[in-house]
Design goal:
Largest sheet: 4 strands, antiparallel
Helix content: 25-40%
Structural class: alpha+beta
CATH topology of one domain: Dodecin subunit-like
Number of helices: 3
Low-confidence stretches: 1-25
Shape: rod-shaped
């Protein structure tokens, strides 16, 4: 029985600070601020990161986990790569003279955004679940 109790305690300990909840899986209650479900802010790119209460590190650890999740979501949004290629072939014939045109156009664009300008503008803890939500924004 003592071995079983120690085994179970060891399992509980191994999950400690690694618990993470993204804003997509966290379910805030009905009294949550509107930004938790709709983080849009004019002129900014914004996301919500969420983290449950942490077994170690208290609220500081919970805040760091929520911030990391928000940074991950923001980084996924701002990594945009566009590649476009079009090919055009034309043939014209006038008075026995034939002209051929074979044109290929390529467009490549990369958009990157520094996360250094990102700031937490609001935070809220769900009183029922203890989940911390943070609203992270960066200029558009």
């Amino acid at each position: 029985m003592l071995v079983t109790a120690l085994s179970l305690a060891g399992c509980a300990v191994s999950e400690g600070p690694q618990k993470m909840v993204s804003s997509a899986t966290a379910k805030p209650n009905v009294s949550s601020p509107s930004w938790v479900l709709n983080p849009e802010k004019a002129g900014f790119i914004s996301v919500v990161g969420a983290a449950p209460q942490q077994d170690w590190g208290g609220r500081d650890a919970q805040f760091r986990v929520a911030l990391k999740k928000a940074h991950q979501e923001l980084a996924q949004m701002v990594r945009v790569q566009v590649q476009s290629s079009s090919r055009f072939k034309s043939e014209t014939s006038k008075a026995g003279l034939t002209q051929d045109a074979d044109v290929e156009t390529r467009l490549q664009s990369n958009v990157g955004l520094s996360l250094d300008a990102a700031r937490v503008i609001e935070e809220w803890t769900d009183p029922q679940s203890g989940v911390l939500y943070i609203w992270l924004v960066t200029p558009n």
